[in-house]
Amino acid sequence: MRLDLYQAETARIAQEQAAALAMAKAILATGRSLTSLEQNGVLHALQILIENAIGKGKHLLKSRGLSVPISGYDTFKALSDCDLVPSAELNTWKSLVGMRNRIVHDYMNIDMDQVILMLKGNKEQFVVDFLRQDIARIK
């Protein structure tokens, strides 16, 4: 896929999922808890955002002729190693990839209270910002 088209699609997906999470935040701001369906929507939106970021990271590596790792952890380590993401962000990416892995593979052990705290703290914005960042301008 052409770099400009890929960037447009990652930004579109980021916008779509950020909007879904904003609706959940608006509900939480009223003091009402999220229903099971809404909680599932939050988890799905986070999964899509993080998977989209992993995909963008792999695309960045590939577009520069670099080796593309299989795991999300290794993808962000490789991006850090070649200064495409700041090394100071590596722990945040590790946590986010871990969250995605729990959502997908360890869904029976998700602490929804922690997910809600993350959402209330606007922590997903880190991923949204990465996805909106113009791929051609990343170093």
Order of helices and strands: HHHHHH
* C-alpha Rg (nearest Å): 15 Å
Total domain modules: 1
Low-confidence stretches: none
What would you call the structural class? mainly alpha
CATH topology: Four Helix Bundle (Hemerythrin (Met), subunit A)
Mean pLDDT: 92
Distance between the termini: 20 Å
Considering the protein shown, what is the CATH homologous superfamily?
bsu32300-like
Q: Can you identify the CATH class?
A: Mainly Alpha
Number of strands: 0
Structure, briefly:
With 139 residues, the protein is mostly helical. It is built from six helices and no strands. The model has no long low-confidence stretch (mean pLDDT 92).
In words, what does this structure look like?
By secondary structure, the chain is mostly helical. It has one domain (3-137): Up-down Bundle (Four Helix Bundle (Hemerythrin (Met), subunit A)), CATH 1.20.120.580. It is built from six helices and no strands. It has helices spanning 3-29, 36-63, 72-81, 90-105, 112-120, 125-132. The longest helix is centred in the middle third of the chain and has 28 residues, at 36-63. The chain is globular. The two termini are 20 Å apart. The mean pLDDT is 92.
Secondary-structure blueprint:
Layout: H1 3-29, H2 36-63, H3 72-81, H4 90-105, H5 112-120, H6 125-132
Give structural attributes.
single chain; 139 residues; mainly alpha; Four Helix Bundle (Hemerythrin (Met), subunit A); 6 helices; 0% strand
